[in-house]
Amino acid sequence: xxxxxxxxxxxxVAAEKRLVLAIKSMDIxxxxxxxxxxxxxxxxxEFLSGEPEGMTxxxxxxxxxxxxxxxxxxSCQLTCSQxxxxxxxxxxASEGWPDTGPPPDERVQPEAVWxxxxxxxxG
Length: 123
Hints:
Layout: E1 3-6, E2 9-12, H1 19-25, E3 44-49, E4 54-56, H2 57-65, E5 73-74, E6 84-88, H3 92-95, E7 114-116, H4 117-121
């Protein structure tokens, strides 16, 4: 069972649980304004340790489009497959939203195929 650490708090999470949902289960109101479909980047996190090597094409394209590739990852496109320590980028409180967004599905959307970043950069 992987351990997720945020702001000095840790929690054991179910293996392969979506990271955005694991963060929410720690009572952190992380943004997911698009419902966890890699369209908005409000679920962005910065990894301090345990960053997964693979990323979905949707995550790569959205982070590249927004100039965030290499700085952040999208928690809606990742699963908890190992111990991780992250900094949450946008929350309901930090952004003044009335809510965090539509509930994300239990499964990664739109596609659950992971590639190495180098594969995606190559075309």
